[in-house]
Write a structure and sequence with these properties.
With 228 residues, this protein is α+β, with helices and mostly antiparallel strands. 43% of the residues lie in helices and 25% in strands.
């Protein structure tokens, strides 16, 4: 990966060997984006996809009444815009950078060519899609079965398993993450999320900084997430 950024678990590039990556990169053009840039907008027509090489983005959708839902956080190795490119041709979500991002941009027909003619890339796409469907299903179950504090704890655990980095003092999440992002993901108010994080801090389960979270006691957080 560029800039020494390893591919995140469950991403397209995590399932590709070096030859597959080189072929994919050879088709596209490298582009850099600054923090806070909107890469795609919900409802717009599409003619390209982006394969992230470094940096993180937030994927979100806006309902008819203006409510924003965080769909996912995507990082190095993930492909953005693949469903629209392969299916409807219209963006179903918006994507905004959380920090500077380096990506390879491919035309939609180039991605379709890869899927038709490169079985290793097609299989990697299927495995990435399967991982995302599993993630979405888990989120629906959590929303129905858990209270806000448990949903927050469960989401932090999921991010830690997929994107956590072990460091002195705990497991740090690789991406910048705001309380509003968490609220939009777990279906709660920012105030309720702030209260939940305050409880976790008071119990010394997590430490929070500006847009950065460290899980100090993962085992305790796991028990908290599944407490009755």
């Amino acid at each position: 990966m560029a800039d020494d950024e390893p591919a995140v678990a469950g991403s397209l590039l995590a399932y590709l060997d070096a030859a597959g990556r080189d072929f994919l990169f050879g088709l596209g053009v490298r582009r850099r984006f600054g923090a806070g840039e909107t890469l795609v907008r919900q409802g717009d027509p599409t003619d390209h996809v982006l394969v992230l090489m470094s940096g993180w983005v937030r994927v979100f959708c806006t309902s008819a009444n203006g409510h924003e839902v965080l769909v996912a956080l995507r990082g190095p190795g993930d492909v953005i815009g693949d469903q629209a490119a392969l299916h409807s041709g219209v963006r179903t979500n918006s994507v905004q950078t959380l920090e500077p991002v380096l990506a390879v941009q491919l035309k939609s027909d180039q991605l379709r060519y890869c899927v038709r003619n490169r079985p290793n890339i097609a299989l990697a796409m299927i495995r990435q899609l399967s991982e995302r469907l599993r993630e979405a299903e888990s989120a629906r179950v959590d929303f129905a079965a858990l209270d806000v504090a448990q949903r927050v704890a469960t989401y932090l655990l999921q991010l830690a398993r997929q994107h956590g980095v072990a460091e002195r003092g705990g497991v740090a999440l690789r991406m910048p993450l705001s309380q509003q992002d968490i609220a939009n993901r777990v279906g709660a108010s920012r105030r309720a999320v702030a209260r939940s994080l305050a409880v976790l801090r008071e119990r010394r389960i997590v430490s929070t900084f500006r847009r950065r979270i460290v899980i100090v006691q993962p085992d305790v957080l796991e028990a908290f997430a599944h407490s009755e």
